[in-house]
Every structure is written in C-alpha cells, then in structure tokens.
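Worked problem 6 (solution included).
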Amino acid sequence: MNPEKLELLVTREMPFGKYKGRIIADLPGQYLNWFAREGFPHGELGGLLALMQEIDHNGLSELLEPLRAKHGKPAPRH
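Solution. The predicted structure is:
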C-alpha cells in the first residue's frame, strides 16, 4: 500500500456530487459501496475512492487516525 495515497485519503476533498468538499476518508460507506457497484471514476480520484472503499469495507478506517492527526483532520462524529 502506497503511503502517499493514504495521506491523500485524509487531505483530498471530493470534487463533485452530494459530498462535494468532504475529505475522501470521511465519505460514508454506503456512498463508497455505491461507487463499487456502479463503477469508480477514472484516474486518481477513482483509485482513491476504491482504496477508501476497501479500507472501510474491511473495518480498517482507524488505521488512518495517525495521518488525520498529522494533518489536523479529526474523524467525523457520527
């Protein structure tokens, strides 16, 4: 797993749609699963969404906590 891509998950914002402006790591699981069913966008964004979906699906989101802290991006409250 590429560490630079993990950093992008906690710093890159969703550029369009219902969750425009939300950090990719903060996207809801059902939204990520929708992309998994319907198809991820092409390019880097699609790769990041697919990576985040895999992390979320496998219950590994807490692995991003040190990166969130490093970048001052606290986890969203549910």
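Discussion: Residues 30 and 53 are 9 Å apart (CA to CA).
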